[in-house]
Amino acid sequence: MSYPYVIWTMRRTGGTTLASLLSTLSEHTGIQHEPFNTERIYGHISGAFAQTGDIAQLRADLHASLGKTPLVKHCHELMSPAFNEVLLEVSTALGYRHIILDRHSEADRIISLELAYLTGAWGSDAAQKIYPAIEAGEIVLDPLNIQRAVQHTRQCMTRRQELAKMMDAAGLSPFVVYFEDVYSDPKAGRLLIKRLLAFLEIQINDPVAYDKLVDDALLRRGQKSARILQAVPNAAVAKQELEAMLRTQAPVFRAS
After folding, report:
1. pTM for the complete prediction?
2. Which of 15, 66, 141, 198 could form a disulfide with 9 if both were Cys (CB 3.0 to 4.6 A apart)?
């Protein structure tokens, strides 16, 4: 029996593709991604906690929702540290293992997020519909919101540090994986996925089907949002500002 897991991630890290692959291979039940977001399946839980701050009720609600060990991909920057701490506590008690998925290039992640705000393309299906019109000049994009990007970058720095402290306090050793290490080199990405499956003790029962699933995840998924950057008036300036701000920041998590 393999372990259920929580993927602790942030938006625009390739988390949906990785989570979909893992859930297909796991015998545990997959559910809606980011299930605690307001409009999602367990959004009522986070919504109630945001209003009441009732830790005991949150703990009870999380036990009830995670009791059958559904697989969770969680964008932790969208929730409060208090919520994340209880989620970590409850999921660990229920036998979950923890994966941290991040990006080496924080500037690229933030710009990808701002592109999603600009275009409305939050997934690959939407990108396939919208990006060709942008590339053809039929849709003219506004500049990126650099002020919002900078503010969100600072918030995410804090969220990473908070998550690291929670993991350390709980005595946990999560599997840390970076977007670029999975997707930039398909051969290296394939080896990394194998190590991740071993961490979760997921068995590969059909090697042929497995190879097709991994090829699809590594070669044919994702939005490839960089292809429309040239259509964004201030993309280069935004990246320069973000990289300058991030230059003195050491990585919070070391890759497994």
Report:
1. 0.92
2. 15
